[in-house]
Design brief:
Order of helices and strands: HHHEHHHHE
Helix content: over 70%
Structural class: mainly alpha
Oligomer: single chain
Number of strands: 2
């Protein structure tokens, strides 16, 4: 009886740890997806002419990026050691092997977003802003993001 209780308890603790790790991975994935929606679902689509230019939508996308980008180091503080089920992209273990470098990539992105914010007035200026922000995002993605699918 005691063995059964111990085994059941160990299994529950293990399952709880796996669930907690998945929650961390999901939180990280959700942050990146929200930023991707702003960058690619709004800004990039406007620069390509796939959706009409809308200053309010641009302002909302830039505001979302301005608020969320600085949270990246905190959200990626914990290594979930697994990827989100069925995710297209995941986090490289390099993040936690070189956390200082990973964290150092965030302020330049935030600064670029702040710098371009007031300059966006039309599609042409949005294209310039997109390219500047994307270049800073790529600095991190090239090293710390994994394509899973």
């Amino acid at each position: 009886m005691i063995r059964t209780v111990i085994v059941a308890g160990a299994l529950l603790l293990g399952a709880g740890a796996v669930m907690a790790q998945q929650d961390v991975a999901v939180k990280q994935d959700n942050l990146m997806r929200a930023q991707g929606k702003s960058m690619y679902g709004v800004i990039l689509k406007m620069t390509k002419g796939e959706i009409p230019y809308d200053q309010k939508a641009v302002d909302a996308a830039i505001a979302q990026l301005s608020e969320s980008v600085p949270t990246i180091p905190k959200v990626f503080e914990t290594n979930p050691r697994e990827d989100v089920v069925n995710a297209s992209y995941g986090s490289s273990q390099k993040i936690w092997q070189n956390k200082a470098d990973f964290d150092s990539k965030v302020p330049p992105v935030a600064k670029t977003i702040a710098d371009v914010k007031a300059r966006i007035k039309d599609v042409a200026s949005l294209k310039v802003a997109y390219d500047e922000i994307q270049a800073k995002c790529t600095d991190c993605h090239d090293t710390y993001r994994l394509k899973l699918k």
